[in-house]
Every structure is written in C-alpha cells, then in structure tokens.
Input
Amino acid sequence: MLLVTILMLSGCGPPEFTYVRDRDGTTYFKVPASFAQIDASSLDLALSGNPPDSQAALQRARRVWATAFDQAEQPAIDHLFDSRAPFVYATVHKLTEEQRATVSLDRLRDFILPVTEETRTAYLTRALHTGRTPLFTGFEPISDRLVLLDNGARGVRVRFNYQIGATTQTFDHTAILDDQGATVSVMLITCRSSCFAARGAEFDEIAGSFKLLRLRG
Output
C-alpha cells in the first residue's frame, strides 16, 4: 500500500507538505498539502496501452507502482494532459531483464512521453499510418540535464512544451535509474505553460525532493 506521511507544523497548524514513498520505500518526494491525491491506476494502464484484463496488464501491476496529485478544484486523472493547475504523476518500474539490457539516458527521456527526435518521429509516423490526429504536436525543448545522485543512481531531468489541442502544456520530467540498474523512478510535473511560468520555483522544489533511498539488507 502507498505510504503517505504528513509533516505537521509546530503546534496545531495545518500540514505544509505531503511526504510520499513508493510501496517498497525506495523512492520518495513531497508535494504541497494543497494537492489532492488521486488513484493513478487507470492512468498508468492507459499509458501502457495494455488491455485491462490482459496478462500483460496483470504482470505490469506487479512491477509498477504509480500515484498522482492534482491541485485543481476538481481533481481528475485527465488533467495530466490539460491542466490549468499543477498536476504531479510519479511511478516506479521494476525492470525486466530485457528492459535492463536496453535502458539508456534517451530511454529515460522517453519513458512517458515522446521527447527525443527519434521517438517523436516514430510517434507521428504511427499516427499518420493509423489516420489518427496526434494528441501531441508542436514540441518545444526548454531544458535537458543529467541527474547524478550520491548513491550511484543516474538519470535525466527534461522540461518541454507540447501543443495539446488549443493549449500549450509544459512538462517537467525526471527519470532516475537506480544504482543496480533494476528500477526506474519517474516524476512528471505539468500544467499549462502560463501556470508553469508563474510557479516554476514551486515546481523546482517538488522535483528537487524526488530522491532514491537504498534500504539496508
């Protein structure tokens, strides 16, 4: 089960942050207490593309943990792709042997959305061949840097815009491969570009709290 602990301020004041760990207690972060936690299982399933009752979906449920937080007045999973208020999605994947052999920094960049040129081209090509209008257009890179943690874990943090319908959505994506090469932990923070421009410092604090912890034993 998801372990969520609330840090209380001195006295009887309201909580300032919600502190979150994944079910194995190895990935943790904090979000302002004003964010509402929502069930991310349906979102994770949609991102995977697996049919709900398939064997692949059942196996994925054993390997993948996910949660989401939304600051909107009416929190909803679909705010990941159209949010006037900040939305945070976090997931931890235990990699299969095949995935361990192919993981790379570019794979970390593309873990949720198409970011690298090769993956964006493949995404648009698939949409063209199926006759579907692509949901994501007008990609704009903002920043891209490596993340190196003290325990040997490494990853990337990329920020970019996508045009989704009539709005421009900004995404701040952090993906970290643990020091054993066994798990990938991902945090995606998003809201409309005007919201992101006004609240960038707050999002930096959330992303900066995203850490890995090596457990003893």
Notes: The CA atoms of residues 101 and 177 lie 13 Å apart.
